[in-house]
Design goal:
The complex is a heterodimer.
Chain A: H1 9-23, H2 37-48, H3 55-69, H4 75-96, H5 99-124, H6 135-157
Chain B: H1 2-19, H2 22-55, H3 59-95, E1 105-110, E2 122-125, E3 138-141, E4 144-152, E5 157-161, E6 168-173, E7 179-184, E8 192-195, E9 208-211, E10 223-231, E11 240-245, E12 254-259
Antiparallel strand pairs in B: 1-12, 2-5, 3-4, 3-12, 4-5, 6-7, 6-9, 7-8, 8-11, 9-10, 10-11
Classes of the chains: A mainly alpha, B alpha+beta.
Chain lengths: 164, 270
């Protein structure tokens, strides 16, 4: 069953916004607090339209992140693809789960993502040496319910209806 | 399974990016795609800065100030070289050999307001191959060496800072001319360490390090950093020497790109 979405601009716009937030310069002390914007937007859209936004889009989004952040090409792509794969498997539970439970799902996914980046950084040879590296997981998860509600409402307002 | 396919593709990308020089061309082309995003992030910040300075009542003064600052930056960079020449002259007089210290061309560049992953120790400049920037080019700020260009795109270029664990720079102690290699520690505290320095080497806290020019990448005689700790671990024949870089790695917004004297810089427009 394919989903027909006539205005994809909302999806593209939110991704562009997330990219911008991911590279927006922050004052030095707050640099480690930066939430994983793109990942959260990604998780949401896979959850909403798993037939449209899935591992393929995750791959492209991951590559763009690599280019923007200057990491080895493919690093974020691998992590994104794996997380997207899990979301495709889990989206039925995540959609109907109460917000708290869903946040827990998101927490696990975001943690897996950060762990994968950590491992890949290790393979590439520049392992982040401070525990502050894990802070974005925390800030992301605090923001998740808000992001979820915000994206859901803007999706409804734009007339994108979730089926299946 | 599509997920597996994309995973394999991503892994191939990673290997290609690490090992293959030809792949860097492809990456450069792909960078065009993200340039609009980088520009879009930089533009409002840049504009806000412009508007703020425009609304100031002393507009003309500010303009003068900015150009003077740029001049000071250039002059300071030249002055750094003079200091080094003076201290080197003593040694050279004894050796009776003239050194080729003609200064290369320089070009002023600005950091783009784009932050990369905090554990990467990279910055992005607003000058690219269209201004003659090339891979491996040394980058300085007003107080010392910052790093070198690792990827030159058409409009932008990516600079690896000295503190990156992959960065190593040949240095020399100003006081006695002992040579060593300074490597980035990669930590969040932005420090360097001297590697393979034996316990018996004459290095003290407070010693200033300048580039030695060996390795043909960085020009001779620019300040690199100051030794802050020297320790002698019992289980090693090498001393542990920590250096704080003299360039203001996380504060400078204006930097200088340097063309070595022997590099054909005809493409350089500056």
């Amino acid at each position: 069953m394919s989903e027909h979405i006539h205005n994809k601009w909302l999806i593209i716009l939110t991704f562009l916004l997330a990219f911008a937030l991911d590279v927006l310069p922050l004052p030095g002390w707050s640099i480690w607090f930066r939430p994983l914007w793109t990942l959260m937007v990604m998780i949401y859209w896979v959850m909403a339209f798993p037939n449209l936004i899935n591992v393929g889009s995750a791959f492209v989004v991951g590559l763009v992140l690599d280019l923007l952040q200057g990491t080895v090409l493919g690093e974020h792509a691998i992590a994104m693809v794996i997380v997207a794969y899990f979301v495709v498997q889990l989206y039925r539970f995540m959609r109907v789960a109460p917000l708290l439970q869903q946040t827990f799902f998101a927490f696990i996914l975001i943690f897996i993502y950060q762990l994968l980046i950590y491992i890949l950084q290790g393979i590439v040879g520049s392992l982040p040496s401070t525990w502050l590296y894990w802070l974005p997981v925390l800030t992301s998860i605090i923001l998740w319910p808000w992001i979820f509600v915000l994206l859901r409402d803007s999706r409804r307002r734009a007339g994108l209806i979730v089926k299946g | 399974m599509r997920a597996i396919l994309f995973l394999i593709l991503a892994i191939i990308f990673m290997f290609a990016d690490r090992r293959n020089i030809a792949f860097h061309r492809i990456r450069q082309v792909m960078d065009y795609a993200v340039f609009p995003v980088q520009y879009a992030v930089d533009l409002p910040i840049d504009m806000t800065n412009t508007i703020i300075s425009d609304f100031s009542t002393q507009q003309q003064l500010l303009k003068d100030n900015a150009s003077l600052h740029a001049q000071v930056l250039l002059l300071q960079a030249q002055l750094q070289k003079q200091y080094a020449i003076v201290s080197e002259n003593k040694q050279l007089k004894e050796l009776l050999s003239a050194s080729d210290q003609a200064s290369g061309q320089v070009l002023e560049a600005q950091l783009l307001a784009i932050s990369t992953d905090p554990f990467l120790h990279q910055v992005i400049l607003d000058k690219g191959t269209k201004d003659g920037v090339f891979q491996g080019q040394p980058v300085l700020d007003s107080s010392g060496v910052m790093g070198q260009v690792i990827q030159a795109d058409v409009f932008t270029s990516r600079v690896m800072l000295l503190t990156d664990p992959k960065s190593a720079i040949p240095v020399q102690i100003k006081r006695n001319g002992i040579r060593a290699i300074a490597e980035g520690t990669g930590g969040a505290d932005n420090l360097l360490k001297l590697i393979y320095v034996t316990n018996t080497t004459d290095i003290e806290v407070g010693d200033e390090l300048v580039t030695s020019g060996l390795g043909q990448c960085y020009p001779v005689g620019y300040p690199v950093g100051t030794v802050i700790t020297v320790s002698h671990p019992a289980d090693s024949q090498f001393a542990e020497i920590i250096v704080v870089p003299s360039a203001r790695l996380n504060r400078s917004r204006l930097v200088l790109l340097v063309w070595p004297v022997n590099y054909p810089s005809s493409r350089n427009s500056a």
